[in-house]
Amino acid sequence: MKRAVITAVGHYVPDNVIPNSYFENRIETTDEWIRTRTGIEERRFAPDGMATSDMGVRAIQDCLNSRGIDKDEIDFIIVATVTPDYIFPSTACIIQDKMQMKHPYIWGYDVSAACSGFIFALETARRLVEAGASQKALVVGADKMTTITDPQDRTTCIIFGDGAGAVLLEPSDDENTGIIDSVMHIDGSGLPLLHMKAGGSVMPASLETVEKRLHYIFQDGQPVFRAAVKSMADAACDVMQRNNLTGEDIAWLVPHQANLRIIDATASRMELEKDRVMINIQRYGNTTAGTIPICLSEWHKDGKIKYGDNIILAAFGGGFTYGATYLRWGIRHSA
Ligand code: COA
Question: 311 and 334 in contact (C-beta within 8 Å)?
């Protein structure tokens, strides 16, 4: 069986930088509280009129340009998002059309797994590539979180930001690189703690749902925090154990960027030094499905990931959803 290897990465973040001080005169909070409780210093807000698909397109262009791949070679596109352009059609369809991707057998769809969306989508694409059903699969994590974040809710509005990342997956005979193993979980009992109340079939949109501000993220922060710390570390340690890896074998942990304290706890359970953890939450906040591919893209561009590096991706999100992926980096830096 062939391995599925990440052969290109790209990302996009909006230009508009929103420092913590932005919130200080709008809600009851302080820069100091946000920094110490979350690790966030600033985030990016996408402008009105820029949809999730537009950020996805920019991330894909960055990804394909870095490898000189023509858009028409893409035969599968999977988009992880909880802020799709529309409930339907899928953001994957919209991106395909916006980019005029013309592979005769291109197909794809969206995945809804909140902050674990990127690793769930990667896992799905990996299986298709390994099975020979896709030769060039695009995995996109993109979210315009500002569209579902209540600017009056101080417990959530300070956390989230907008952004997108994309990776290209291709089959390879190279045993030394590619996605090696993964563990993925869902636990639907997490629903009451993290969800959006209205806009679905349970509570369709109405004047009342808008007036009651029910089209925004609802989060009960503390229990979610505890579940995130446990689940992300459990998944990461599980995938390490299954592959006989110790902390010393890992070049990089790429954690979902929800809260610096969750990241630190996960790294500590894995017995990893902090200089081997990708952290950019201070600059972007939580971009949901965007966090992990944005990290990979930034670290790759900076030349900090070496060919053959052992990398663990780990995420936790609404659902609950959580998991970890073990891969060996397959891009030579000159590529
Ligand atoms: N500024 C100032 N005070 C704030 C605040 C803000 N922006 N948000 C909340 N507070 C207050 C609370 O009201 C509370 O006050 P009280 O003690 O008077 O009731 C106090 O700060 C502590 O609140 P708490 O919720 O315990 O804070 P916390 O340390 O748990 O941090 C989160 C809150 C949301 C940052 C944290 O719980 C978290 O990161 N949760 C998990 C997020 C996550 O992983 N989500 C998963 C999907 S990505």
Answer: no
Q: Are residues 244 and 324 in the same domain?
A: yes
Whether residue 94 has pLDDT greater than 50: yes
* CATH (domain of 225): 3.40.47.10
What secondary structure letter does DSSP report for 75? -
3-state helix, strand, coil in the chain (%, to 5): 40, 25, 40
Taking the whole predicted model, whether its pTM rises above 0.85 is answered as yes
Cα separation values, 208 from 151, 202, 219, Å: 19, 14, 20
- Would residue 300 show up in a list of annotated catalytic residues for this protein? no
Mean pLDDT of 144-172: 98
pLDDT-based confidence at residue 333 (cuts at 50, 70, 90): confident
Our answer to whether residue 286 is catalytic in this structure is: yes
Residue 335, domain member (yes or no): no
Give the pLDDT band of residue 147 (cuts 50, 70, 90): very high
Q: How many A from CA of 44 to the centre of ligand 1?
A: 20
The residue from 106, 141, 175 where one domain ends is: 175
Kindly tell me the sign of the dihedral angle through the C-alpha atoms of 100, 105, 109, 111. Answer: negative
Ligand 1, pocket residues at CB < 6 Å = 29, 33, 37-38, 115, 154-155, 158, 221-222, 224-225, 228, 258-259, 262, 286, 317-318
Residues 209 and 106 in one domain: no
Ligand 1 atom nearest the C-alpha of 318 is 47
Atom of ligand 1 nearest to the CA of 317: 47
**Rounded to whole angstroms, how far apart are CA atoms 18 and 40?**
11
